[in-house]
């Protein structure tokens, strides 16, 4: 008996130990997962603090429209139709002002027009007697078919798709429920008013409380994409031609900690088309704000973005040569190193100048020197390519270098096209002219010679000194009171 009691006690202790071990492991795993989750949440908020502000804006709008239910006089006036105000806020409140206006205006116009057509269809059907359901069914079928087909038009799909969808939904609800629900006009009026209240609350909060403008985001995105390409081009020369650290520390060198950044930064540009088109579409709905006029040329941003992605495609092909191992550099490789690095450096500087002028919304002016230097380097590169012997024994070794040179020529052409597109954008958007770096005051390079005599007028206390100022060896008289 004593032995059995000892065995049972040992088993209980062993079971408790295993349970304790499992509980400890589980708690550790839960704690680790919670730490990872909190870190992800913090990173999401740090990447764009506007997300946190947007969350509070949505909560504020929802709280405001919920007063229709909480305040007794408002509830007596609207009844259960007040829930449509809450649903409207949830559905149309978007991150950007353009997104909110896009959904809000589409929903309001579609609800008003579809509701009016639905009430008209019910009124006509009420005079048809037994043919009422047939007429209403035919109207639902006809408008649903036509509206659905209209959604396939690209222009409608891009700007009014949500409105057409709400039009189909609203007309179907009014036409179907109108034949069974009494006081349909009163019910439709309540729903329309509550939808207007919800939409107005969203628009007011979105526009006047920490607004997020889609047009401004598009403007910054295009400038950022140019800077990413510029960073790659400025670092490619020193990385590909394997220069010593001292030689590459000037124009083409990159720090080892920034190597991964400039190698991979351009890749996000390749997939930016969808974001640019979405932002341009939403920016079209936004009112004039800040330096962006109501008729700002958003389409020109899309054309510029297309040219930037075209340049990024050439850079994608160029980056493939970075992984090529060149154990011994050929004479041809060394010969084209200097013009290739010059093309990379000048193209990168030109893109950075264009990006800087675009951010400041000023007409680009100082980048033309980099374009001319790039053209001169391209001429030297072509001369080196033409001087090379195509039937030499080391032709296979020359092919990668020739490909790099050819890609750099294409990239320089893309940079020139981008500059022309930025110029066109600055003309359409009426960007400010860049201020001249020359000082506005007159620089006197001659001597100032006062006259020995005074020209006195009236009293001795009131007189005028007349001096002669020599500017660039030219004398002129000036009267200083």
Separation, N- and C-terminal Cα atoms: 125 Å
Order of helices and strands: HHHHHHHHHHHHHHHHHHHEEEE
The radius of gyration computed from the alpha-carbon positions, rounded to a whole number of angstroms, is 36 Å
What number is the mean pLDDT? 80
Helices, by number, come to 19
Structural class: mainly alpha
Strand content: under 5%
Structure, explained:
This protein has 19 helices and 4 strands. By secondary structure, the chain is mainly α.
Write the layout of secondary structure elements.
Blueprint: H1 2-47, H2 50-65, H3 67-70, H4 72-78, H5 83-92, H6 97-125, H7 132-150, H8 154-159, H9 161-178, H10 184-208, H11 214-240, H12 259-264, H13 267-270, H14 273-283, H15 298-319, H16 331-335, H17 337-360, H18 368-387, H19 395-428, E1 448-450, E2 455-456, E3 463-471, E4 474-480
Antiparallel strand pairs: 1-3, 2-3, 3-4
Helix pairs in contact: 2-5, 2-10, 5-10, 6-7, 6-9, 6-10, 6-14, 7-9, 11-14, 11-15, 11-17, 14-15, 15-19, 17-18, 17-19, 18-19
Please tag this protein with its features:
481 residues, mainly alpha, four-stranded antiparallel sheet, 19 helices, 69% helix, disordered C terminus
Summarize the entry for a quick read.
Helix content is 69%, strand content 4%.
